[in-house]
Amino acid sequence: MKRSAPGFLLVGGLVFAGVQGNLLQAQPESAADLPPVAQAVMDEQREQEADLQIPREPLAHKLFYLPTHDEPANPATWGSRFREVDFDSADGTRLHGWWIESPRNPPLGAVVFSHGNVGSMGHHLGFVMWLVQSGYEVFIYDYRGYGKSQGSTDRKGMVEDARAALDHVSKRMSSRKLPVISYGHSLGGAKSVSAIASGRNPGLKAVITDAAFASYREMARNYGGRLAAGLVTDELSPVDQIAGISPLPVLIIHGKLDPVVPFSQGLKLFRAAKSPKAMFEVGQGLHGDNLSRDEGAYRKRVLEWIDALDEKDGQ
Asked: How far apart are CA 177 and CA 203, in angstroms?
């Protein structure tokens, strides 16, 4: 766990504004109890609502999205070959990603990875390079407003970005007759669930989320109390979308000690999903280490879960 700029807490890929001190402390229920950053967001919200009648959601983005435009690493840093990819979201916003090649030929399939809310995709390679070594190609991309992607962050647009990434990979893999798997961490899990539920998914074999949340409003309440929850809508929240993924198999992974997205959020997401579904409860898991801890024990379980889907398809 480390801190970013004052007033923000960074834990394994998800940041919330206005979080100070002990994560388990009582949450504020009045403006006087709010941390300075959250109070500033709310003051700005009230001023704009009064003067310009601007809707609540744009300012609430400050609670969820912290994009950067740097490139701390790329797949070559990890010894892998990759290609730069530019593609368009539904509204024409130009997006950027990396197609990471697998040493296995032919690969087992392609994984589309949707990353968490802090930083460009170069900060998130540790979540996927094990899949490359396991025989999968990986497509990792930046949402609008992140990295080299154009545009600015907004909830609906970022869901459309996840949709565009899935469509881009599915088209490329269909000619090779290889399956596609969606894998999202934290905010990326939330975005990918809503994207997949929004349309047809030819070639998509399975959906995996790791430390994803169920509700935007509940997450805002967890960190900023009733007043922060009032800044956020639950539009496109994954708990309302995930049933629409069926009959695609869904795997929910969540650490029982997650200090950022409570385990209860993952459980709520699992209960809202339809079969076929599975959940891996990582007993000592935090927010960003569920698959890497215990010498990668849960990475092996993920691969076994995918292999079991192949066996069912073959029956």
From this structure: 8
pLDDT in tens, 136-181: 999 999 999 999 999 999 999 999 999 999 999 999 998 888 999 9
Q: Secondary structure of 149-164 in the HEC alphabet?
A: CCCCCCHHHHHHHHHH
Confidence at residue 94, expressed as pLDDT on a 0 to 100 scale: 98
φ and ψ at residue 62, rounded to 5 degrees: -65, -20
Contact 125, 73 (CB under 8 A): yes
The whole-angstrom separation of Cα 127 and Cα 298 is 13
Smallest Cα–Cα separation from 96: which of 49, 164, 31?
Answer: 164
Burial class (CB in 10 A: 0-12, 13-18, 19+), 220: buried
- 209: helix, strand or coil: strand
pTM: 0.82
Query: How far apart, in whole angstroms, are the C-alpha atoms of residue 146 and residue 54?
Result: 24
| DSSP run (H or E) holding 300 | helix 293-313
**What single-letter amino acid sits at 13?**
G
